[in-house]
């Protein structure tokens, strides 16, 4: 049997998709990396991320940039989309959302490297752009994570009324 067909993916191709709007990491699914011997980046850009301010309950909007170097498992994109949608009614600060997403993806996939950059739209005249990364301990990716974090955003892009 084709290894990809033997995966237990329940969301991909499902015509009866149910959208959940309360934080649910159980929506995430993985599949086998077909090239675990090679290091390469996978990047997702999610321009429709929404969560709620935990104090005012006003909506917060962001574009999330998620990049990772897979090990044995990879996140399935539809499950990632549904998982990110599940933040719709979740109340957390921007920094907490980005860190929680990182924690969930690390636990799910055990990647070699992961980084997430949230670019939130301004509210109250200020935008917040939290960045988190992770490199697997005991590998060269731990040093990459440190280096990227310490050099992160040295040359920020111009902000022109995002």
Automatic annotation (TrEMBL):
Assigned EC number: 1.7.1.13
Alphabetized Gene3D superfamilies for the sequence: 3.30.1130.10
Alphabetical list of Pfam families matching this protein: QueF
InterPro entries with a match to the protein in the record: GTP-CH-I_C/QueF, NADPH_dep_7-cyano-7-deazaG_red, QueF, QueF_type1
Organism ancestry: Bacteria, Bacillati, Bacillota, Bacilli, Bacillales
Function as written in the Swiss-Prot or TrEMBL entry: Catalyzes the NADPH-dependent reduction of 7-cyano-7-deazaguanine (preQ0) to 7-aminomethyl-7-deazaguanine (preQ1).
Family the entry assigns: Belongs to the GTP cyclohydrolase I family. QueF type 1 subfamily.
Catalytic activity, as annotated: 7-aminomethyl-7-carbaguanine + 2 NADP(+) = 7-cyano-7-carbaguanine + 2 NADPH + 3 H(+)
Organism listed in the record: Sporolactobacillus mangiferae
Active site: 53, 60
This protein's UniProt keywords: Cytoplasm, NADP, Oxidoreductase, Queuosine biosynthesis
Major place of residence: cytoplasm
Pathway where this protein functions: tRNA modification; tRNA-queuosine biosynthesis
Positions that bind substrate: 75-77, 94-95
Location relative to the cell: Cytoplasm
Protein name: NADPH-dependent 7-cyano-7-deazaguanine reductase
SUPFAM superfamilies assigned: Tetrahydrobiopterin biosynthesis enzymes-like
Gene: queF
